Amino acid sequence: MHGPTLVNWLLAFLTAAAGAYCLTRLRHSPCTAGGTTSPATHRLLAREADAAEALMGLGMAAMAVTGAVVPGTVWAWLFGVPAAGFLLAAVRGPARRGHRLHHAVGGLAMTYTALAMTATPGHHHHTASTGAPLLTGALLLYFGAYSLWASSRLLHTPGGSVAVGTAGLPHACRLIMGIGMFAMLLTM
């Protein structure tokens, strides 16, 4: 990432904490099934989401700290392969299609930022931007809107009460990752 050092470290800390929390969620199965899916399918989809969010959080932290030190092809494989898997899963099955598409967009956005960042290793935040401006703008709009949506889910639970304690942590992690991706794209 090409922003100020303090912002990079704060972003790295927040996204690493969110990624680590998602890793701990992998160990615990959800206690109730949602929607029309069976409990086994619900657990599998929840684990899939937790693994994707852990990868994104820890990957954003690593990318914010290491910047262009790691070759873009490494990042492309790390995020591109899961993104392609989520795209295929979303096309093949209706279960959690929107959630899978979101993870695919996130993985592709991470790949895009890594490749753009490593394409110009001497790039600083006060020089010309890297990447395709239209694609960067579209991704900024997407992650800005996603962050607003995630913040609204954090503030209110389906019952209308404010989320307190650990009940809101998954929503807070999604908000952190949405804001983190927005910040990474903004500094391009």
From TrEMBL:
Pfam families assigned: DUF5134 (PF17197)
Superkingdom to which the source organism belongs: Bacteria
Residues that span the membrane, as ranges: 6-23, 74-91, 103-120, 132-150, 162-186
Keyword Transmembrane: yes
Keywords: Membrane, Transmembrane, Transmembrane helix
Protein name: DUF5134 domain-containing protein
Biological source species: Streptomyces kaniharaensis
